[in-house]
Write a structure and sequence with these properties.
The chain has 2 domains: 188 residues, Periplasmic binding protein-like II (D-Maltodextrin-Binding Protein, domain 2), CATH 3.40.190; 206 residues, D-Maltodextrin-Binding Protein, domain 2, CATH 3.40.190. The strands form 3 sheets. Strands 3, 6, 7, 8, 9 and 10 form a 6-stranded mixed beta sheet that branches. The chain has 19 helices and 10 strands. 48% of the residues are buried. The protein is of the alpha+beta class. Helix 10 crosses helix 18.
Length: 443
């Protein structure tokens, strides 16, 4: 009897131990793909540099190598499109939230279900619900299908020089856009210093960071419910006119400012405030890159008549359909690892901005990283589609870049420029089949 009990106990112990012995691990999952090289495009921004610092750990654990091509944002879309059209070498797609329609509709990327349904590749700790829903849906999903996981994640925030504001008599940042212009603008624009800088260079920065930023808080938008231009509505016109008026308190030549110039203007103490992506926090608070690091504070973007509508931007990483099976599996293992809950705090500390809700709940994180409270607020209440995400956006963006710049330079009136953009935008949408019923009217 005792022998039977002992045998039963051993069997039970073995049964309980079996799941642990078979527990999923990155090392085991990657064994069939050791030596696989995964080609991907990165940008020269803090979030990518953070992953590069972490990469040796992944490569040592898996034997998988990443071949990274780093390029400017302006080149990233064209280079990837050319590669996918030609059936080239890229195994992963780096997707701006406004590119995903183009990538998905052309069949260039693989739904993550192909990997999450495979127990050999799916990390049981993936926890897709831990991503901020707004960010996951905006950056990684198209027509209800998730293709990529949020990788380089942005929210628009108000970065300001507390010391400059205090010297001008302010004990807090502006709450509204009107207050920023009418009260803070005159008080802070003097002696070669300026109250504000709005990145407005003629590229996606003009259309997204400058033009779009002034539509939503004022109740405007690119399109109305009928998918026609809404740029000449009173609300859109009010926002675009406000931008024009705000230029009185910006540095000369603001239409040539990209992110680097705008961040540097604040970091050098030349402007008091900027609205910029959360990804630049590390640059602004590091004494190595900022003369005013000790004075930098962060707040939510100001409210407009329609409320607080902060900018939303960022990227996802997705597996390319042109990759072979080994490259697809290896690429997915990298994406899963890079965006994991387990690595989120390390990624944050090295300069990235993870999209994981859990990392911002770690005690002390919100106090240590001053941008976190405003970031979390914006991802809970932001504009889901700050820019239209349909596949035709890149073409429309070029139109906005051209005529938005002409508006700021005073070459056309606000009304004329908006009408020109609207006419050309509708022509693009008509050719794509939105008005004939070939494509659904969904922004």
């Amino acid at each position: 009897m005792k022998l039977k009990l002992k045998a039963s106990a051993l069997a039970l112990a073995a049964a309980l131990a079996a799941p642990q012995a078979q527990a999923w691990s990155l090392e085991e999952a990657a064994k069939p793909y050791a030596g696989t090289v995964v080609d991907v495009v990165f940008l020269d921004r803090p979030g990518y540099n953070a992953i590069k610092e972490m990469l040796p750990e992944f490569e040592a654990a898996t034997g998988i190598k990443l071949n990274i091509t780093t390029m400017p944002y302006e080149n990233a879309l064209g280079e990837q499109v050319r590669d996918f059209v030609a059936g080239g070498d890229l195994d992963l797609a780096l997707i701006d939230l406004v590119w995903i329609g183009n990538f998905a509709e052309n069949g260039w990327i693989v739904p993550i279900e192909e990997f999450t349904s495979n127990p050999d590749l799916a990390d049981p700790e993936l926890d897709i619900d831990d991503f901020f829903p707004l960010v996951l849906n905006a950056f990684g999903a198209w027509n209800g299908v998730v293709y990529g996981l949020p990788f380089d994640n942005y929210s628009g925030l108000l970065f300001y020089n507390r010391c400059m504001l205090e010297e001008a008599g302010f004990d807090r940042p502006p709450e509204t856009w009107a207050e920023l212009k009418d009260v803070y603008g005159p008080a802070l624009t003097k002696n070669g210093k300026y109250a504000f800088a709005l990145q407005s260079k003629r590229n996606e920065t003009q259309s997204a960071d400058s033009f779009a930023r002034m539509l939503w808080p004022f109740g405007g938008s690119f399109l109305n419910a009928e998918f026609r231009s809404n740029l000449n509505s009173p609300e859109s016109q009010a926002g675009l006119q406000f931008r024009q008026d705000l230029m009185a308190y910006m540095p000369p030549g603001i239409v040539a400012y990209d992110h680097a110039e705008t961040v540097n203007a604040l970091a050098q103490g030349d402007v008091a405030m900027i609205t910029e992506w959360s990804a630049f926090y590390t640059t602004l608070v590091s004494p190595e890159t900022s003369k005013v690091a000790d004075c930098i504070e962060v707040a939510p973007e100001p409210k407009g008549p329609a409320g607080r509508k902060p900018a939303l931007g960022g990227f996802s990483l997705a597996v390319a359909s042109q990759a072979d099976d080994a490259e697809k599996a290896a690429g997915w293992l990298f994406i899963q690892w890079a965006t994991s809950k387990a690595n989120a705090e390390t990624y944050l500390r090295k300069g990235g901005v993870p999209a994981r809700q859990s990392v911002y709940q770690i005690p002390g994180i919100a106090e240590e990283f001053k941008f976190v409270p405003a970031l979390v607020e914006s991802w809970k209440e932001g504009v889901p589609e700050f820019r239209p995400r349909f596949a035709e956006w890149p073409t429309i963006s070029e139109i906005v870049q051209e005529w938005g710049t002409k508006m700021m330079l005073g070459e056309v009136s606000i009304e004329e420029g908006a009408r020109e953009i609207g006419t050309r935008m509708e022509a693009v949408l008509e050719e794509a089949g939105y008005y004939s019923g070939e494509k659904p009217l969904a922004q």
